[in-house]
Amino acid sequence: MGECLGYRPDMALVDILQHPPIYQGFQSIGGFFGARIRAIDAYLDIRPGDHIIDIGCGPGFIVKHLPASIRYDGFDIEKRYIDYARRRFHARGSFHCREFDLSCAASLGGADVVMMNGLLHHLDNADASALLRAVRRALKPSGVLFTLDGCLRDGDSWLANWVIRHDRGRHIRSEDGYRQLLKEHFGTVKIFIRDDLCLIRYPLAIGLARPI
Q1: Could you tell me the pTM of the whole model?
Q2: Nearest CA-CA partner of 23 in 93, 66, 78, 64
C-alpha cells in the first residue's frame, strides 16, 4: 500500500477540538472549511433531489452549503458533534451517531454522492478498506465518492509541514497512497492535488471514485 505516516498530535488540542464551536472555528480560521466548500463546488455536480451521505460529518456545518432540496444523511462517531448537528441543522438532514458500515449501506443505499471530508487520513489501511467496501455498496452505479485529505508531498513549506505534523489524523498519505487505496474498491479513480484552496499553501488530495 502507499506511503503512510503516523503523527501523535498534542492531546490538549484534541480535547479542545471535541467542542463543536471550537472545532468549527479552528477549521474556518485555518481556511480548511472554506477549502472543503471550494473543492465540493469545483469537483461535484450536486443536483436537487440527490441523496448525499456524509461520513465524518462533524458538527454538520457543511449542510448549510449544499442545496436545500437534497436528502442528506450525516455520520460521525463523536456524540458531541452529532448532538450539536441535530440541534442546529435538523431541518436540513438526518444525523447518525455511529460508524458507517454495510448495514447502513443496505438501509440507506442508492446514494448519488458519498462525501468523506478529512476522514481517510484518520484511518489505517484495514479500517479504510472496510469503510470503502460499505461506501461502494451504498452508491448508485452512477454515484461518486468524494474524498478530501491532507497530502504528503516533497518540497512543501515549513508551515504546511507543521500543520501536517499537528493534524489529529495519523495516516496522512501520499498522492499514490490515496490512489492505491481507492483503486482496491472502485473501477474509476481520479486524484487531484490542490495547494491553493486553503489560506496557506497546503496540499490537499481530492479523490473522485466511481463504482465502474
Answers
A1: 0.83
A2: 78
